[in-house]
Amino acid sequence: MLNPDGVINGNHRCSLSGEDLNRQWQNPNPDLHPTIYHAKGLLQYLSAIKRLPLVFCDYHGHSRKKNVFMYGCSIKETMWHTNVSAASCDLIEDLGYRTLPKILSQRAPAFCMGSCSFVVEKSKESTARVVVWREIGVQRSYTMESTLCGCDQGKYKGLQIGTRELEEMGAKFCSGLLRLKRLTSPLEYNLPPSLFDTENDFIESSCKVTSPTTYLMEEDEPRFLEEVDYSAESSDEPEAEADLANNGGDFEPCLQEEGLSDSETTRTRLP
To answer: Which keywords describe this protein according to UniProt (predicted)?
Structure first.
């Protein structure tokens, strides 16, 4: 997450400095935009040692458009969009930037290829997608937009997207990356085709549905769930102080030695 201070305070775009961090990638300030500054520095380092990532993807929510879709970068499509036809007629461009969106449109029910755009607008030149494409040299540099409104196509047509659908999209994105790697480096990364059919089995075996809109990972459940006590009373504090006094102030609880759960050693006092 590149905007933790803004998100935790309820902002969608801006950090606590009041700036849209996805417009600071051209010249990030290390004090005002530290996450952008260091993320870009990491990508520059990878470029310097000739280990560019296959894909760069920035994840956003979209407040108006529906479905899940991508913005990418294409010189030729940008020229067509701006009616610069003289140079674009002879321009030869690798169409590999379209491969991942096409894979996702075939695999992910919430993804819509028709909503994708690969035009580089002047107003977006300082975004992560464009800067990583233009300055770092990552051809498959994207912004993935997930609707805040719902879907108008596929099996989720007319429905709002919840946590379950977003996690499904994430799983499909990961399997799409694996498929893309196999297509772009068939000799270096030759994997059996059956491997690409396992993502659904993984979701079924690793997740259980707790509501119509959410998955719960088995390993995410807190230990000793039945012993967690959120109704601690103020009378617990004198007891804890008395225990410390009896032990001379040197008491150090050890869960492994005493065999106690978190709820038996520490209680949370709610305001």
So the answer is: Carboxypeptidase, Hydrolase, Protease
